[in-house]
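dumping these here so i dont lose them again. two proteins, back to back, each one seq then structure tokens. dont judge the mess
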Amino acid sequence: MSYRNLSECLRDLEATGQLRRIDVEVDADQQVAAIQRRVFRANGPAILFTRVKGTPFPMVGNVFGTMERTKFIFRKTLRAIESLFKLKLDPTEAFKRPWRHLGVPAALVHALPRRVKDGPVLANQTRISQLPQLKSWPNDGGGYVTLPQVYTESLAHPGFARSNIGMYRVQLSGQSFEPDREIGLHYQIHRGIGHHHGEALARGESLKVNIFVGGPPSMTVAAVMPLPEGMPELFFAGALGGRRMDMIDRPGGLPILAEADFCITGRIAQGRELPEGPFGDHLGYYSLAHDFPVLTVDKVYHRPDAVWPFTTVGRPPQEDTVFGKFIHELTAPLVSTVFSGVHEVHAVDEAGVHPLLLAIGSERYVPYAAERTPQELITNALSLLGTTQTSLSKYVLIAAKEDNPSLHCHDVPTFFRHMLERIDPARDLHFITRTTMDTLDYSGISLNQGSKVVIAVTGEKRRELGREMPTGLRLAEGFSQARLFAPGVLVLQGPPHGRGRDEHDPLMEGLARAMTAEAGLEGFPLVVVADDAPFTAESWANFLWVTFTRSDPATDTYGVGEFIHCKHWGCRGPVIIDARLKTYHAPPLDPDPEAEKFTDSLGAPGGPLHGII
């Protein structure tokens, strides 16, 4: 079945036992988020809340909470989408195996939006204050839309072909927003809406914006899909949804998605910004309050049977983890066509996605060399940092396929072992400083600014990795609780950080000097310093999250025997990463105890979630 709207999808999920109704009254202020997180962790069903305090609208969460359910929702179109991507990879496939691509013509037809004069979404109007005011974490700055589809068009080239749909955070209440008249629009760097906003600023005009919530499930996926520039998300939504997207023509305004559950129409005025935030985000911390554009609201429409979809954003894994895996499966065959020489990439969800990118590339530049050194791999890594969403990556670790054709970067422990066996820390780290970085990452020297590092390795094994703690290890004063985390990796506990932004810590430099005289570190090319060594070394999920979300490569990388030669940094002993929380970092997310207790009550015997959580 190809769903025309969200209600059709929810009825189908309920009929197949994949949706559970919660008729107990719940609060959108943290309770529904706590419940959704718990159900997600239990691989549970979609959850429909029929009685939400302060709003007449039901809420639904965890719709995309499992890969199986996500594939079920798009079961009629997945094969056609996969065929489209395969044909882009190899157009001759259509002639070699035409029977495998029978759904492609229909998918291409469905990709084209259809202009209509009316639709269900225009049946009713409401106010911003009547919408569900979702807060996921105790210090969230107000009510938020967590699954918006923010639609804009180019002012220079209006129409569907140059449109953009993005999932940009929308704050409905709090701060200095005028109630029911203003909302906050937080969009990060390197997002399509930025081009449209830039056009409006250059012309001295307001930017018209429509925010859709709900509607065909494919629109939600399209809003987070990392499509090439110039490929409209609206077209992809039609192909994935198996239906042409009906868009209502509005004289003087942007078209409106006819089957959306809600539509907020408005405009971003010239020079109008207000603080947006704080809000719990996908790195596992609060993104703090910063000035972002303000949307002046014109109308708020909703269909008669409107349901408000939501998700929770927080430390991975969350529901957006499933989005990432689903998108990876769809786009994996295209990696080598977008990035020449790159065979596989993995933006690591446990590390917050953008902080850590693992990749496998080719090293073919000098095949006759007696000792292979990273050359093409560096070109590959710079390509990854030069376009698409991979350009926001902070740590790029890339290995050569020729060294181990069976290596896969989604096997994280094996990939790290391969890298650490071969890394030459005097040669293989390549830093890019004073550059743009993810808006949500507070480890850099300012908002949107920090550093990146490419670590490229190739060639034969250089060392056997240590698998037992080095005996008699002596640390600098203030450092303790050394842990063997994985082969070749030590985790230490350090004193609290006490420095400012954009400066090295003398304590870390002292640790590096103290370790210079230590024997037995030959098998440990990586040392990580954390605030809580036992927690960090407890699991790969903890290690990845702490190490790569709490460090800036240029500021927080130290080395035993470090040197700078002709502006190239290297070290002769272990690389040391300072992964402590810094004085300028945003605080990590902690749930509200009362919301957790309420969730417990729903899972108790007789509760609507008994047997699920």
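---- next one ----
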Amino acid sequence: MITLFTLEIRYEQDVVQSRQRTRELAEQLGFETQDQVRLATAVSEMVRNAFQYAGGGTVEYYVEGTPQAFLVRIQDKGKGIPHLEDVLDGRYTSSTGMGVGITGTRRLMDIFEIDSLPDQGTTVVVGKTLSKRAPTLTDSQLQQIRKAVMARSPQNPYDEIQRQNQELLRAMAELRKREEELSQLNRELEDTNRGVVALYAELDEKASSLQQVNELKTRFLSNMSHEFRTPLNSVLSLSRMLLARMDGDLTVEQEKQVTFIQKAANGLSELVNDLLDLAKVEAGKTEVRPSAFEVSDLFGTLRGMLRPLLAEGASVALVFEEPDGLSTLYTDEGKVSQILRNFISNALKFTEQGEVRVSALQTDRTVTLSVSDTGIGITPEDQERIFEDFVQIESHLQKQVKGTGLGLPLSRKLAELLGGSVSARSQLGQGSTFAVTLPIAYPHVTELPELSQPIASLKAMHLPILAVEDHTETLLIYEKHLQASKYQLIAARTLDDARQALQQLRPAAIILDILLDGQSGWTFLQELKSDETTCAIPVIVITVIDNEKQALALGADGFIIKPVERWSLLNKLNTLISQGKPQKLLLIDDDPAYRYVVKQLLISTPLQILEAANGREGLAMAESEQPAAILLDLEMPEINGFEVLDQLKHTAITQSIPVIIHSSTQLDAEAQSSLAAQSIAIVSKETTAQAATMAQLRDALIQAGLILDEENCYA
């Protein structure tokens, strides 16, 4: 710390002198004029307080710190400030105005410290940091500043007052100038605002006009399409009648002419249908009718529908890849089919040889249906134009195949209507791929179909699993995962739904999402674990965020990051629900050799294998041992497997035991349907490969609720 100057405050003129010295030192230290005035004003205010309330004191000017700061310490030996906290908070006022100077000084300074003790006095330190752009002052430079200031004699107090008045006038002039600039800026802003308002009004008017034009166009297309359909249908019907010779033979020329008429009418009918569909979509009158369906069933329908488009002996193959492991879709099947028909028919039109391949790929919450071909391809500059209305790309095949130019634009609009999108990739001369990406469940669905089963309709042999999840597609995935297992899904899309379900039943486990719409899954988890009636129910937190530690700390029994695999979910449920229970598997089979084979296949699992050599023995052991699951053969003497299964399901003590049919019996459709309704799975003995047999048994055992080692679950 380098002390620059010390001043004793004994008389009133010393207050004026403190102001002078502060300004002089601030000037020597390189502060700008405004900061000089701020420092001088703040110091004189604090010195005046010391003189007025304490009868005097000392003022010490010094420089210290890194970066350097100009500091002034004002110290007195008065009675102190009794209400300092109230003064600093601006809550205290008095007839003398005490406190106004302190709060004002604190606002003016970069550094402000005050310490006041009753009957011991008050110390105030104020200051400002030197400019960062200025070089650091050395000790010798500070000593020179000290000598220069001390060499100056104090000015006349009246001169100081005059200078203070001049500073005030300059400040007022500066404020007046800024006020005029602000007024000018406000006038300019008002002019700009008027222009913006006028521009918006013009845009609104044009938008309204365009909307009216668009509505007129849509209405015209819709009305025109309807008006065209009647005569077109008549033309097509009459041409078919003529070509069928219903009113006599036609000459060769007449047949050729009627054929031309029929082709033209078919083309016009296709155009009218596309125009009508497009008009409906643009007018917002297309109704989405979501339903649950399998992609494999959709592909099968399209395969039969589009095969006639392939000419006999054609060099183009239409290949549908078998979709594997896809979730059930819940969207408008008719519109998805229409999109794919457009893609496939275009691919067949513009592919001379090779293949057109249809495939499907699922991500977490979407499915992408793709149509790839080995056709002529599309240039990069045309790949966006093909989605414009009536646009058809010129090629040597375009003259041979006729179209409306509306199929792809309509497909894109239908995909957007279903909450999805359409994309295209192509390379000239090598082929194209058109794809539609759709959410697994239509996003605007209001109810979950056939998912939230009424509590009263719970199946006796199935354990209820309460899933608290607000995404419809995720619930559909859970429903798919739990199919053909010992579990039954109870869906709750809100916490209120979950609480209501818990009042009606006790689920075997709860699947809980944390990121619920507008609700906290963490709060519900704490609520479950703090309630005596629900604290023992296993809770699996399944979410997209990796916060396993927090979930387990709040009482969760398991944690899985989305997307969740079927076997991972089933094995986690089995582990939590069946932990501590004996893992007994009862084999009911009259063939000792086959019982031995099964035991060898399951030797590395933690299962306790029980054996029954016939149906009667198996029923007795099922009642006495209460196994976790039963592996049942159908062909046995005395009591066959069908009779055993029937007795198991009609006996109270055994009806909830999961049964896996393990037999070589050839079953017709009716028998398979009947057995599927009463058992968890049907596994054939005919599989010769040990790995395949083990995989089938593994899947069936996990579906039945048994806990297997991790290596057996995912081998």
